[in-house]
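Researcher: Excuse me, tokens okay?
***
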Amino acid sequence: MKNTKSSLKMVAVSTTAIVLMLLSSCKKESSQNATAIAPGSAATGQAVPNALLIAKTGPKGVCYVEVNSNDLRNVGKYTLSTGGQQLFDIAIIFAANINYNTSTKKAVLFFNPQVTNVLNNKATYIQSLQSKGIKVLLSILGNHQGAGISNFPNQAAAQAFAQQLSDAVTTYGLDGIDFDDEYADYGTNGTGQPNSSSFVYLVTALRQLMPGKIISFYYYGPAASRLSYNGVTVGSKVDYSWNANYGTYSVPNVPGLAKSNLGPAAIDIASTSSSTANSLATQTVSNNYGIYLYYNLTNNDSHTYLSGISQALHGSATTYTP
């Protein structure tokens, strides 16, 4: 489980293949207008357009960064040694909070100074990753004040908070929202306990507000057992869900999500052993799941550790470019 913030194969590209692509002038467009490092160029840092790259295969890499103490831009420093594609596909800012206004009795989106710095300097932290093809999400979790994603008292309250989230995504140019049902301390400040409708109402409203954006669910907490209400399922509204217990392999039970949208393997880069992390990566590929979850990417160079994982996931070691 993450710490609280508030106190939180691919086929090798041969030189011949690259030459053939250049001679034929056949550009392979990716869905992202990114710049990547071609094979053999990482040592020099020379950037080449990703028209020279073929699409990365294997599970998507999702990476949480504790921005209180680490730089979000670290996510963009890791590429596949063979192919040059980014190791991580999604970066998650950990984390913003759900606070509770005791006067208005409403949930309020809250950013601490470090999160505020990342968001206000979006060109530096967010757009720099997006320019590499990495999606950037904002994680939302409780803050020990009684408010969380599982206890909105009615549909209107859930819709009001969804509007706050959508506004933040628009204001800061984010690619979506990640929900994490931790640290709410339900019942504090006279708030209600988790109910069956809250999370469904919230993701339904948010999907309506931002149909083209990503919504993900960190499979944990009361919300994990409250995924359907009045025939509407959370799985029909969110894009991805992943296991929340680091060093383990457990498939999130989110009806409506295909294997390609689920991540049963989760690691803490700072504490999960290499052998465990590599084994979980192998298991993810063998079972055809589409997500591998990394937590706690720090400011240290972790490419040696990550190389074992990327070999299993993508058939390549990892290169670190400061």
Observations:
- Helices lie at 15-24, 113-120, 122-125, 127-130, 155-172, 198-209, 274-286, 303-314.
- Confidence is low (pLDDT under 50) at residues 2-52.
